[in-house]
Amino acid sequence: MQYAVLVLILIALLIVFIYNALVRLRVQCDNAWADVDVQLKRRYDLIPNLVETVKGYAAHEKGTLEAVVDARNRAMSVQGAAGRAEVEDALSGALRQLFALAEQYPQLKAVESFNQLQGTLTEIEDTVQNARRYYNAAVRDLNTRIAQFPSNLIANGFGFTSRTFFELSETAQREAPAVRFVTGAH
C-alpha cells in the first residue's frame, strides 16, 4: 500500500514537472513571437518614410511605390507565423524592387535621409533575422517536447499543440533586401 502511494506521488510529480516544462516552452514561444512581431512593426513603420523619400525623386514610378505600400499593409494585417511568412516574402520582394528603382536615380542616392533610412532598414533586417532564428529555436524545443515520450501524453492530455516555424517560402527571398548603395563618384 505504501509503495502504491509512493508510486502515485512520483507519477503526479512527473506529470507536474512535464506540464510545467511544456508551459515554460509555450511561454518562450509566445515571447519569441512577440519579439518578431515588434521587429516587423519597426520595419513596417519605416517603410512609409522610405516610400515618401523615393516618391520625391521618382514620383512617376507609381506602380512600384504602390506595390510596396500594398505589401506592407497586407503584412501588417496577418497574424501567426505561417501567414506572416508568406506576406513577408511579398514585402521583401517589393522592397527589392524599390531599391532597384532607387539605383536608377543617382540624386536619390545622394540624399542623406534616404541613406539613413537604408541604414536603419539594414539594422532592422538583421534584428528581424535574429528574432526569427530565436523564435524558430523556441518552436523547435516546444515541438520536440510535444513529440517525445512521455511528455507527448501530457501534451495531448492538456491540449498543447505544435507551433509553425517562421520560414521564408522562396529561396531567393531568404536574404534581406539589398539596401547598401555605393555613394560618391563612380
Word description of this protein:
Helices cover 77% and strands 0% of the residues. It has 186 residues and is mainly α.
Short synopsis of the structure:
The protein has 186 residues and is mainly alpha-helical.
Task: For the structure shown, list the relevant keywords.
single chain, 186 residues, mainly alpha, 6 helices, rod-shaped
Helix-strand makeup class: mainly alpha
What's the overall geometry? rod-shaped
| Average pLDDT score | 85
H/E series, N to C?
A: HHHHHH
Note poorly predicted spans: 176-186
Please indicate the percent range of residues in DSSP E strands (runs of 2 or more): under 5%
Distance between the termini: 88 Å
- Contiguous helical run count: 6
DSSP helix fraction: over 70%
| Count of extended strands | 0
What does the main sheet amount to? none
Instruction: Give Rg in angstroms.
Output: 23 Å
Helices and strands in order:
Blueprint: H1 2-57, H2 62-77, H3 81-103, H4 106-109, H5 112-147, H6 151-158
Helix pairs in contact: 1-2, 1-5, 1-6, 2-3
